[in-house]
């Protein structure tokens, strides 16, 4: 079994590389891919750099070039659901692109022809995440993620995304990873720890909590591997 673990930022995968300790590094298409093995599972780890385009390239490469058979995304996100606080963990049930807009032609936000507003994550992986959360007595919210090529730090935009997509959190890579994995028929899950509230203080909060929240998400992913 070969599993990809993907993040967007180096801070999101550093905790993983530190945990696994030894790994090969392969440079490809201006990205670095780290290969290792853990409990008989081949792992390929990478961070894409920020945004949907970077994430699509890395997700595609992890699957097409490195042969990943499942993809786990680990990182941080901004909360849209008021009950989500910094440090809370969210596993996505489905993801949408909040900045994909051809509403001029009567289509809903996030929709283009031959596509769909939402892409659903793999149910078995999401159930596994919930199982691990139960066992470890870690609160885990199941919810909707809205992805876009913008760092959301404004209450008005925050509310618009929350309402338009009924989304619980926002980030900049998940939905593009979803489109790639769905098209290539690779089971995937997206796990995010909250780093901010996507409001006017989001920048400061993100700076303060990126490392700790990224570590939390990474540690949870490792716990999932132990049960895969
Ligand atoms: C140098 C700054 C890099 C910001 C990257 C943020 N990531 C993108 O995936 C997650 C994220 C955390 N909070 C967010 C927010 N409020 N809006 C969008 N994305 C996010």
Describe, in plain words, how this protein is organized in 3D.
The chain has about 230 residues and is an alpha/beta fold. It has one domain: Nucleoside phosphorylase domain (Rossmann fold), CATH 3.40.50. The chain is built from six helices and ten strands; from the N terminus they run βαβββαβββαβαβαβα. Strands 5-9-8-6-10 form a five-stranded mixed β-barrel, surrounded by five helices. Strand 2 and strand 3 (about 30-40) form a beta hairpin. It is globular, with a radius of gyration of 16 Å. Bound molecules: ligand 4EZ. Ligand 4EZ binds next to strand 5, strand 9, strand 10 and helix 6.
What's the short story on this structure?
36% of the residues lie in helices and 29% in strands. The protein is of the alpha/beta class and 228 residues long. The chain binds the ligand CCCCCCN(CO)Cc1c[nH]c2c(N)ncnc12.
Set out the fold topology.
Layout: E1 2-7, H1 10-20, E2 24-28, E3 31-38, E4 41-47, H2 52-64, E5 70-79, E6 89-97, E7 119-120, H3 123-135, E8 140-147, H4 155-165, E9 169-171, H5 174-183, E10 188-196, H6 202-225
Helix pairs in contact: 1-6, 2-5, 3-6
Bound molecules: the ligand CCCCCCN(CO)Cc1c[nH]c2c(N)ncnc12.
Looking at this protein, list some descriptive labels.
alpha/beta; binds ligand 4EZ; 6 helices; 36% helix; Rossmann fold; 228 residues; single chain; 5-stranded mixed beta barrel; 10 strands
């Amino acid at each position: 079994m070969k599993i990809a673990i993907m993040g967007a930022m180096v801070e999101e995968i550093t905790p993983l590389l530190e945990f696994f300790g030894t790994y090969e590094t392969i440079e490809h298409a201006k990205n670095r891919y780290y290969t290792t093995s853990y409990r008989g599972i081949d792992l390929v780890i990478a961070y894409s750099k920020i945004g949907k385009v970077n994430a699509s390239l890395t997700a595609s490469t992890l699957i097409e070039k490195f042969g990943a058979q499942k993809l786990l995304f680990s990182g941080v996100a901004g909360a849209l659901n008021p009950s989500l606080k910094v440090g809370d963990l969210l596993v996505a049930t489905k993801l949408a692109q909040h900045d994909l807009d051809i509403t001029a032609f009567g289509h809903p936000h996030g929709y283009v022809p031959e596509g769909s507003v939402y892409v659903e994550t793999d149910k078995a992986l999401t159930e596994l995440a919930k199982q691990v959360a139960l066992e470890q007595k870690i609160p885990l919210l199941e919810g909707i993620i809205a992805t876009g090529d913008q760092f959301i730090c404004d209450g008005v935009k925050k509310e618009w995304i929350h309402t338009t997509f009924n989304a619980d959190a926002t980030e900049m890579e998940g939905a593009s990873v979803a489109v790639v994995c769905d098209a290539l028929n690779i089971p995937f899950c997206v796990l995010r720890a909250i780093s901010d509230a996507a409001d006017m203080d989001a920048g400061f909060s993100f700076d303060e909590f990126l490392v700790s929240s990224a570590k939390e998400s990474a540690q949870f992913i490792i716990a999932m591997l132990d049960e895969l």
